[in-house]
Amino acid sequence: MLIDAHLHCTGAETPGAVLRALDDSQTDLGVVLAPFLSAGYSMHDAASLRRANAYLADLVRGRSDRLFGMAVINPALPGAVDDLDRAIAAGLRGVKMVPSGWYPHDDRVQPVFALASRLQLPLLFHSGIFIDGRSSRFCRPVNFEALRDHPGARVALAHLSWPWTDEAIALGLIDRIHGVPDDAAAFRFDLSFGPPPAYRLQVLRRALAVLGAGLLQFGSDCFLPCSGADIRERRGWLEDLLDELEVDTPARERLFHGTAAAWLGLQPPERPADAGPALPDLPESVRNEGLPPARATALAMRRPHRAPGWLMGRPAAAAGLRASGSAWQRCC
Ligand SMILES: [Zn+2]
């Protein structure tokens, strides 16, 4: 099964054309985002986002086996919580947000995060630089640490946060250090390429070596309507790099399906057979004295009884450097 975890609607696509593009690219499930970058829609206009989310709900209705609809919400706008509630009631199943003019640690955006966490929605954030010249300071990975205050939040950061990929990898590493199973981790990262071609192999090698495929997922970041060939081309960029890095079949299955399936809540989270009880009887060494109560609860809920150690069983991939892919792309 193949999941494309990052596809943009624009308002110009038809359901039939979207399904054809998925069929032609052998994509089983597309995570489709409500339009917000095309004419008539704006991330800073709540009314247009309500229209966008209603439009997407219509597009995916009756097609939940192929299309996973994600609302687009600006959590800094008045009424954002109600807008999210409405979008989910209409059939959307996750949320895309783009920090611009607000930080993920701002108090004013926490109510949306809290609702998303309570509803166990997968969250997708733009992370990394904006290539249209807007300030990207809101989108640095470290700003997203605030999501750890929301127990159960399942976050994907897009583009591996380039150029702050080391910072992103460090963010994802925290759950690994504490032995949290990948599927229960707060953060995973989509490989819709933010890094330009000259960086991609190096970035992917590091991410695989430190985080493993269980915290990485493919997203084409294509803008619909597009052809299946467009999606296949983007997937090919990643496949070429995986070939160079000699990544094995189970890891590829995670990258193209397993990680996203867990993020979307399509399969029960993995749990090590010897993990023991999740909450009671935590060893003294992993209690969270000094942490704010919400953060301590979040960590305790994620942490298995015995941490396996983040270095165990994680072979570092080795490969020569050869740039792959040829183009920048819009990213958001
Ligand atoms: Zn995007």
Structure, explained:
With about 325 residues, this protein is an alpha/beta fold. It has a single domain (about 5-265), classed as Metal-dependent hydrolases (TIM Barrel, Alpha-Beta Barrel), CATH 3.20.20. The protein is about 35% helix and about 10% strand. The chain has helices at about 15-25, 45-60, 80-90, 110-120, 165-175, 195-210, 230-245, 250-265, 295-300; strands at about 5-10, 30-35, 65-70, 95, 120-125, 155, 185-190, 215, 220-225. Strands 8-7-6-5-4-3-2-1-9 form a nine-stranded parallel beta sheet, sandwiched between helices. The protein starts with a strand and ends in a 30-residue tail after the last helix. Bound molecules: zinc ion. Zinc ion (ZN) binds near residues 192, 221 and 332.
Instruction: State the secondary-structure class.
Output: alpha/beta
Radius of gyration: 19 Å
Query: Residue share in helices?
Result: 25-40%
Q: Roughly what is the average pLDDT, rounded to an integer?
A: 86
Label the CATH architecture: Alpha-Beta Barrel
Number of helices: 9
Relevant CATH superfamily: Metal-dependent hydrolases
Bound molecules: zinc ion
Provide the CATH topology: TIM Barrel
Described by the principal axes of the CA atoms, the overall outline is globular
Strand arrangement across the biggest beta sheet: 8-7-6-5-4-3-2-1-9
Number of folding domains? 1
| Topology, number of strands | 9
Q: First CA to last CA: what distance?
A: 25 Å
User: What is the N-to-C succession of helices and strands?
Assistant: EHEHEHEHEEHEHEEHHH
* Low-pLDDT residue spans: 271-292, 303-329
Which percent range describes the beta-strand content?
5-15%
Biggest β-sheet strands, sense, barrel:
9 strands, parallel
- What is the CATH level 1 assignment? Alpha Beta
